[in-house]
Amino acid sequence: MSARDEILAAVRGALREADRTEAPVPRGYRTVPAPADVVGLFIERVVDYRATLSRCAPGELADTVRAALGSARVVLVPEGFPAEVGGVPDAADLDACDAVVTTAAVGIARTGTLVLDHGPGQGRRALSLVPDLHVCVVREDQIVAGVPEAVALLDPGRPQTWISGPSATSDIELNRVEGVHGPRTLHVVLVGP
After folding, report:
1. Domain contains 91
2. Per the domain annotation, does 153 fall within a domain?
3. Which N-terminal stretch is annotated as signal sequence (predicted)?
4. CA-to-CA distance for 99 and 73, rounded, in angstroms?
5. Pick the residue with more confidence: 89 or 142?
6. Cα dist from 50 to 1, 93, 133, 168, 184, whole Å
7. Residue 172 lies in a domain
């Protein structure tokens, strides 16, 4: 028997064993008390990631989003977005769009992360990855302290995109380059009372 055959036999045996004994997955996550001000921490972390952040009341949403879009000419607006900001529907050619506006399913304070589950107002996954500017709207009541709280709110059967700041990589000589794998600019609009 060759070394290759021995390895494959061991793998097959382990797989047969795994099929017979499904071990429970431990769910004893380390919990940390929620910070006193989750919204303040979220803001701090979002800005740390080099994203821009604006705050507004619900009635100011459309004007705040339009201001965040600046001079963007072609703006993609997915179905179900909660404000009229002008723009083209989701079916548009993504490469021809300068910006996209979406909502978020949840915001995570400790990591400054936005999670999209691609429900109403969020569109398909590619929307948040191709245009150069992503304006993402999240309500204060959608912000949770940490990742375990966010995961508990999300449907594991839905696609998810987790966004922590504008697209960035340090793959080449450890120099940070933004916009290689997605939007060069992330603008978060935080809607509160």
Report:
1. yes
2. yes
3. none
4. 8
5. 142
6. 57, 27, 13, 10, 10
7. yes
